[in-house]
Amino acid sequence: MADPASERDTSGISFEFNDRDFRRACKMIYARAGIHLADHKRDMVYSRLSRRIRALGLNSFADYLDVVEEDPEREEQSFINALTTNLTSFFREAHHFDALREQLRKLPRGDVIDIWCCAASTGEEPWTLAITACEAFGSDTPPVRILATDIDTNALTTATTARYGNDRIADLSIERKRRFFLRGSGPNEGLVSVKPFLRKLVEFRQLNLLSPDYGLRQRFTAIFCRNVMIYFDKPTQYEILKKVAPLLAPGGRFYAGHSESFAHALDIMQPCGRTIYRAASDAR
Ligand SMILES: C[S@@+](CC[C@H](N)C(=O)[O-])C[C@H]1O[C@@H](n2cnc3c(N)ncnc32)[C@H](O)[C@@H]1O
Fold first, then answer.
1. What is the distance in A from the centroid of ligand 1 to the CA of 135?
2. Do 124 and 197 belong together in one domain?
3. CA-CA to 40 of 20 to 30 Å: which in 23, 63, 162, 179?
4. Is residue 150 lining ligand 1, measured as CB closer than 6 Å?
5. Does residue 247 share a domain with residue 275?
6. Nearest C-alpha to atom 13 of ligand 1 is from which residue?
7. Residues forming the active site
8. Which residue's CA is the nearest one to ligand 1's atom 11?
9. 238 alpha carbon to ligand 1 midpoint, in Å?
10. Do 69 and 123 fall within a single domain?
11. Which of 182, 205, 207, 185 is nearest to 195 (CA)?
C-alpha cells in the first residue's frame, strides 16, 4: 500500500507486536516476494498489518500470521499487497524516457516493439511508456506493445482502471494533458483518465519477479525495472537479473532506478548509460 503519509494507525485499537512477530512477518514476506525489511521498517509493518488484523476481526499478530500461512487462498495476497510500497509518478526519472525515445527512433521500422514494465505499481510508469512511444512515433498507434506487471493486485487494479487525481498529472505539459488524458466531470470531477488509444498499448498482468519462470516468450527492446530491486538483497537481485537478461532483445536496454546499481552482477548486466544497462552477452 502506497502512501507513507498515511502509515500512522489511527484506529485507537492496538495489538501487541513483539520481536518474534516482526521477525516472522519479515521472513514471510521475504519468502513470498523477496522483499527484505530492515529493522527500521518495524512501525510500517505494524501499521500496515494491523489494518488487516482489524479487517479480519482477529486479536493478535500471531493469529494473523497463522491465517496467512494456513489459509493462503484467503489472506496471502492481501498480506503481500499490504507490505509492498507503490510510490511512483508519471515521468518519474524523466531522463529514462528521453533515452527510450532515442532508442525507439533508431530502431528499424516494421516490427512490433515489445517493452516490459516489471514493477508497474499503480500504472503511472507504463502509461508514461505508452505516451513516450506515441511521441517517438508521432502516432496514436505506435508499433509498440507494453507488458506491465507487478506482484500487487490492488496496485494493478488502480493501474488498469487508469483513473487518477488531477494532481498526479499537474507537472505534465498542457499539450500532454490534452493529448493523452480525459478530464472527468460530474462524479468524476477532479479526476483524469487515460485515453482509450493509450490503453490499447498496455496489457496488465500479475507477475512475481521471484517466480522461477516468468512464462514470457517475447524478447524486449526495453525492460523498465525501476525502484523495485532496492527492496531485494543482492543474491535475490542476482537471481532476478539472471532470468531477466535473456529476455532482452539484441540491442535491448534494461532501465533501473536511480539508487540501484548492479556492480555485483557485471557478468549479467553491463552499464551503458545513466542507470541503463545491457545484457553482458550482448556487449561481448
Ligand atoms: C516503489 S514501486 C516502483 C514503481 C515504478 N517502477 C517506479 O519506479 O515508479 C515498487 C513496486 O514493486 C512491486 N514489487 C515488489 N516486490 C515485487 C515482486 N517480487 N515482483 C513484482 N513486483 C514487485 C511493488 O508491488 C511496487 O508496486
1. 26
2. yes
3. 63
4. yes
5. yes
6. 119
7. 48, 150
8. 119
9. 17
10. no
11. 182
Q: Tell me: do 73 and 134 sit in the same domain.
A: no
Same domain, 64 and 131: no
* pLDDT tens per residue, range 59-108: 999 999 999 999 999 999 999 999 999 999 999 999 999 999 999 999 98
pLDDT digits 0-9 by tens, 136-172: 999 999 999 999 999 999 999 999 999 999 999 999 9
Output the pTM of the full model.
0.95
Which residue, among 154, 150, 152, 135, has the nearest Cα to 224 in the 3D structure? 150
111 and 25 in a single domain? The answer is no
Q: How far is the CA of 22 from the centre of ligand 1 (A)?
A: 22
- Can you tell me which residue has the cell 511508456? 129
- What CATH number should be reported for the domain holding residue 116? 3.40.50.150
* Ligand 1 atom nearest 209 alpha carbon: 20
In whole angstroms, what is the distance from residue 250 CA to residue 278 CA? 9
Residue found by looking up cell 509518478 in the block: 89
Whether residue 241 has its Cβ less than 6 Å from ligand 1: no
Give percent of the chain with pLDDT exceeding 90.
92
Q: Is the CB of 35 under 6 A from ligand 1?
A: yes
pLDDT recorded at residue 101 = 97
Domain residues for the domain of 128 are: 95-283
Measured in residues, the chain has a length of 284
Q: Hey, whose CA ends up nearest to atom 16 of ligand 1?
A: 33
Give a yes or no: residue 33 inside a domain: yes
| 215 φ/ψ sector (left φ>0, alpha ψ -120 to 50, else beta) | left
